Batch of 2 targets.
Target 1
Amino acid sequence: MTDSFRALPEEKKERVFAAAIQVFAARDYKHASTDDIAAKAGVSKGILFYWFRNKRELYLDCMAYLSDATRRAFEQVRFEDVTDFFELMELGGRVKTELACRAPHYTEFAMRAYFSEEEWIARAAYDLTGQTQTEECFRNIDWSKFREGVDGKHVLQMLVWMMTGYLQEKQRGDAPLDFEEAMEEYRRWAGIFRRYAYKEEYQ
């Protein structure tokens, strides 16, 4: 984005990003129309490309905008006070699911990006996701609760994959995302993994 876009009032910048994210969420990158983005944002296409050099830059800036929104939401939560792995995972899941429920287009955009056939999009989505799931969140976890031979990182990855699949299924079915339903699904999966991963005295 250009300095002129950065200098805009926050409300106007948010309106442009919201319009772009909605359009990119509805169509794959190649078929998403910048004409539609400009119309939804209430600006001319010429102004849009004055602020962003091209469609690719706009797309990447949308990804960075969402990553920053997620980071700010995580900063409001005291993850460092949590020592139990599964409690921490549920807390993180609540933060992300609340964001998804407040802004459904954001979730659709993120999912489409993460599973995009465009390698540069999928790679950028993966890199940005990693920034919001840093080792910092897990620094106080009591790893001694895990059974010998069980890798907590593998359990983490499985839970992320399962939640991602759940969101994909909801997206394909055009069903609205229900926060309590999503968290109930997570708790069911976490209970299964807890019994598998933790020593008996911690189950």
Target 2
Amino acid sequence: MAEVKPSGSPKGESVYLAIGFIRRPHGVTGEVIMDLHTDFPERIKAGRKVYIGEKYESATVSSARLHGNGMLVRIRGYETPETAGRFRNQWVYVKATEVPPLPEGQHYKYELVGLSVVDDNGNTLGTIMEILETGANDVYVVKNEADKEILLPAIPSVVLETDMENRVMKVHLLDGLIEERDS
């Protein structure tokens, strides 16, 4: 029997949240074009510590400004297109421990992964394994013990209550809206 390993970060390892994706250098001063993957672009500013790429290389933002649907960002110590080019096609992260808390009742997506999901009658549906981002609303991928997946839209008429203390989400199953898929 194969060993089952828990998902998520190993004990003691930081959880990193993606905030952007660096495309390529722009101009002659070392700026790079970064696609935004955060709801808080105003937090990306000079002095902000970030982590770049698969190895989470520590870096500091020296400047940032909005540009089209993204940002132009300069990383301290990389002031030419040639030096900044090393970050081409890499993700930019922040540590989950370095982000401010959200208002009461709101949660970062990474906090929801692993929650147990029950319906409004108390029946266990499974565990949130993934969150899909769609144009209209997010979709929670819930996997049960039989390895079947249920796709739940993250809308108020479905998500009734999120109890972070007990790590349980109560949902209402809407006829015809809940989709099952084999994994």
